[in-house]
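haha ok so turns out i had the wrong file open the whole time. this is the CORRECT one, sorry everyone. sequence first:
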Amino acid sequence: MSRLRPARGVVSLFSGAMGLDLGLESAGLQVRVAVEANKTAAATIRRNRPELPLIERSIENVSTEEILGAAGLEVGEALVVSAGPSCQTFSTAGRRQSLAEPRGTLFRHFLRVVSEAKPRFFVMENVRGILSAAVVHRPLAQRGPGHPPLVPEEQYGSAFELILAELRQTGYSVFFDLMNAADFGVPQRRDRLMFVGSRDGQRVTLPLPTHAEQNGSGRESWTTLRSALAGLEDTSPEFTEIPPGKRRYMAMVPEGGNWRDLPEKHRRAALGRAFESWGGRTGFYRRLAWDEPTPALTTRPDSKATMLCHPSELRPLTVKEYARVQQFPDEWEFEGSPAQKYQQIGNAVPVGLGRLIGEAVWTAASRKPGRAGAGVIYCDNEVLLNRIRKARGTVLNPARMRKVAGLREAREWMSGTHRRRAAIAEGIRPWSQAAL
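then structure:
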């Protein structure tokens, strides 16, 4: 440990397969300890970083003192505490149990370590779904006329409001933005909400996009799947098989298509019960396109609802192809079954995105402290703030799926839902107000 510089030291929590950590390290930071409870992810860390201190227990059962001791750091000495607390409870692809589910409160243990370890900065990433999550999730089937009005904790954005309140309580100046990985050269359209906290009031300038979908914007074009996989040598390709019943329908989907490209007579049978639901359902029977970035990698690319089929073959991407999309080094090896490897890779932060965050932190570390307000939340993305201001407090099932279908009744029920989103945005400052 003596050869490592505490000034660059990173404490990694919920480390997973270390996608975020590899990105931070590529920016010149040094991971000093990893905390990871998942056995296969921990095995992946040991395989690739046998010298790295690893605490293989749930964060609820690990003290900050133990973490700092393993890292060889004192209180206040770490540059960064980083984490991506479990995001399934906030994801729009999941059941949206949010903070009512134990995994949804893991961010509080992250904040516990931050408050006790007192690093100069913290980095927390999570899914876009946090913006619209509720503290208590009420299923769609229980909303609308014929059901009680929503209480504040059941309204969209209430979880985000609570998270911001708890971030303020740390006393750190907090900077956040919603970043689409494709806009930063990652071959994947993957929105991640990034929070960076500064203990000493130094401004953190989050990176601006370098890539764009269309030419003529002054930025480079999005990185495509074709270019991401160029030169990949995979002599023993590892992937899960698409079950025969799903293969039948997947074979009918063209490159870049999904279930909507199936012949109409097959759509109901292919989707099953989901055919009667609503929304885009774009993940059903989805085939990738060579000359576009992939959608956000899922943890189950062989499931009909989260399918990520190869553009020209009847299979998901291989494990190595998956890892390439997330920008892991080709030599990085994953432990576990193919399904467990997909899960580790799908849950990771793209390495390139982690590098940009690491560079932003290191740049901020060289600035003079003091201008940013303690416990103040900053965001310079006006488009994001407007989205937060205008977002609905809830949505309803289509009339055909409601207990009471009348339009007047629906409007009356919705009028009882308090609109809180504008108030949330009012509590966030642009950097131009930092000195006010």
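Residues 6-212+350-433 form a domain with the Rossmann fold fold (CATH 3.40.50.150).
again sry for the mixup
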